[in-house]
Amino acid sequence: MTRYLTVSPGTQLAVLTTVAAVLCWTAFSTSAMVSLAMDGHTAESRLEAMEEAYEARLAAYAKQQRALEEQLNQANQRRDEVTLRLSDKQARLIETANDLKAAQAERTVVREEFETLLDARRADAEHMAALDAELAGIRTALTETETVNGNLEGTLTALTAAMDRVVAERDSAAESHAEFDVELCRLRAEIGQLEDREERLLLQLEATARTSFSGLETLFSRSAIDLDRILVDARRDYGGTGGPFEPMEDHDGTSSGTFEGDTRVAALMNDLETVNLMRFAAERLPFGVPVQGGRLTSGFGPRRDPKGRGRSMHNGLDIAAPRGTPVYATEDGVVTFAGRQRGYGIVVKIRHAFGFETFYAHNSRARVKVGQRVSRGDRIGDVGSTGRSTGNHLHYEIRIDKKPLNHIKFVKAARDVL
Predict the structure, then answer these.
(1) Which residues contact 409 (CB under 8 A, 6 or more apart)?
(2) pLDDT value at position 275?
(3) Top-confidence residue, 178 or 331
(4) Which residue from 108, 179, 339, 366 puts its CA 20 to 30 A from 240's CA?
(5) pTM (2 decimals)?
(6) At 150, is the pLDDT very low, low, confident or very high (cuts 50, 70, 90)?
(7) Which burial class, exposed, middle or buried, applies to 10 when counting CB atoms under 10 A from its CB (0-12, 13-18, 19+)?
(8) CB within 8 A of 372, min separation 6: which ones?
(9) CATH superfamily membership of 292-417
(10) Distance from C-alpha of 261 to C-alpha of 265, rounded to nearest angstrom
(11) DSSP type of residue 255
(12) Once rounded to an integer, what is the mean pLDDT over residues 91-112?
């Protein structure tokens, strides 16, 4: 026998309401318990996350500093290699230029010999023409003499001897004329060979000069340096010899050895002088490393003030290192300041060639004096935390005409070009 249980809608609604209330209470209780459990760990988790982020940031700065130092060291090595190659190229250029001058002198001598032979040939031709005229006159006189007086044997003999002499001289002049023609052909061929040699030397010199000039010009342009101003200063300080090439004129106002390539030689000599000046200047730019083994903690440009005063402009590089770590001069120069300066602590300033100045701040000690001449790699101070500083580090700047420059540009330019 089957029985059915019938539940009214009201009862169903009551049951559902009760079940929903129980589920809501259970969810609320569970959420509250979980929230209470998690509150205890929130502060510790945040602290751990902040520590991990700070350690990651320090690791990134250290990695960036090591990469920049490696790039700078590689750039310095490549610059030294390029300097040696440029010196070798310069020696070869000078040797080739000397060969060119010798070839030009030899060609001038050959041309003078050619002109002398040409003049002699013309004189010989004139002499031969005069002899022909004289022979014709003698023949005419002989004919007239034979007609007038056939008995003048003595006169006939004399005229015959004179005629034979003139014929012999004419034949000799003809042989000399042929020899002159052969010698002139030889000299023309020799002049052509000399001109071909000069053209090859010019092409070689021009290609080498273009290669050297292009690389050095790219280095200066990427470093945002006024190349014209640097070249003016370098020309004043450069101890070598040079000057624009100008062909020498003879006493009569004509140019000695003037030929079509003189303009190219003049341009080439001027380009070689410019390459020498650019190489001379590149060797005196502050590409050195001020602190070995340091860690870059702040770069050039806008940044958040380390003392918490908002954003500010940072005109150099901050390189963290232990207190007492040696600070080195990055290029030859003269110390212009060694002492305390507000905000920067103990400061050393060095003036270099072409208006450059390097600035080393927050030192614990300065090891140089004003007026002292230093060389690249000389120890000038010790890392410290004097002045407005949050820890031991070196604040390093490169300035030209008192204007700060981005040091990284020098590193990248040297790495890409050298």
Answers:
(1) 222, 223, 224
(2) 74
(3) 331
(4) 108
(5) 0.52
(6) low
(7) exposed
(8) 334, 335
(9) Glucose Permease (Domain IIA) (2.70.70.10)
(10) 6
(11) B
(12) 81
